[in-house]
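At this stage, I put together a protein sequence along with its fold in token form, as given directly below:
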Amino acid sequence: MTFEVEQYLPDALLERIRGRAADVDRDNAFPHDDLDDLRAAGYLSILVPADRGGSGLSLAQASQLQQRLATASPATALAVNMHLVWTGVAKVLRDRGIDDLAFVQTGAAAGEIFAFGISEAGNDLVLFGSDTDAAPRADGSYAFTGTKIFTSLAPVWTQLGLHGLDTASPDGPRMVYGFVPRSDAVLTRDDWDTVGMRGTQSRTTELHGAVAPADRVVRRIAPGPSPDPIVFGIFSVFEILLASVYTGVARRALDLAVEAARSRRSKRTGAAYSQDADIRWRIADIVLAYDALGPQLAALADDVDAQTDHGGRWFSLLSGLKHRATTTAKRIVDEAILVAGGSAYFADHELGRLYRDVLAGLFHPSDPESAHAAAATAWLGPLEN
């Protein structure tokens, strides 16, 4: 079957989302209308296999779609990203013969919204440790108590995928991965007032004994680096789809820079800025940087889908991809603003919004320090004690 991005994100839908983005940002609101439109289009189940009610797309195809969605509204794309991460992890596991997240696939096809509850303030272990307490219960369920930050989709999620540390079991400590539904044991703070990516509404989530039923406890593994498929699944899908969003931001900034170069005219020469040698060099520099991102995304996403074995290099490849995409996108937005001129400094200019949105890329895992450490370890070996 031929894959066409317009089939899943038609131009008309994309333009509706684009038309709302400025208001969502200005009002610091969640894009409910965007989510409704995307749900109606079947977008939330693009990574769910056809036999479970989804589109059965590959990770590489989902990456293309997220790039396209981010050109219209980076915040909407980033929010939806977190739901797609869990459906992507379910796909990665099922492709490898592990069907522990079947409920994520059937749930997404039925309209459930899955949020990502991994980030914790000050926890640079990320997937390898947690400050959230996971207390085992007699029936096999777990009660989670702790605080998660940057919980995108906060106003609308129905299931929160999260991790915590079980120190009470005889075989502990164990990292526990599970899913909790909304309940009175989950408190969402209304504290999302950020510079950019405001529509994600990635609010702080307090867990006060929130229970993941036994059939929603999907993994118990040792803390620290782990070869467990759920760690690879989360890391690979998260990094690839995150890089996709920021690649989409870069593309939109490039398009806006080209529009500005063609529409602005020099008072000195009367010619369009597109004929100015310095502007042409700046646009060319943007293009040369942008053109490197898509092939990297496609290649690594294809490798995840094909179960290519990169061994110990996987983490440096994936963290490097995210690092390059986010830092390159930021540089492209910076250059695009210089092409557009002073008007881009106004809050209502789209490039001004992209300038604020793209900053968020620096804070997502893997951060620059982690990316460099992973690359150094892959090529030089671990640090000696």
The mean pLDDT is 97. The beta strands are 114-117, 133-136, 142-151, 159-166, 174-181, 186-188, 203-212, 217-221. The radius of gyration is 21 Å. DSSP finds twelve helices and eight strands in the chain.
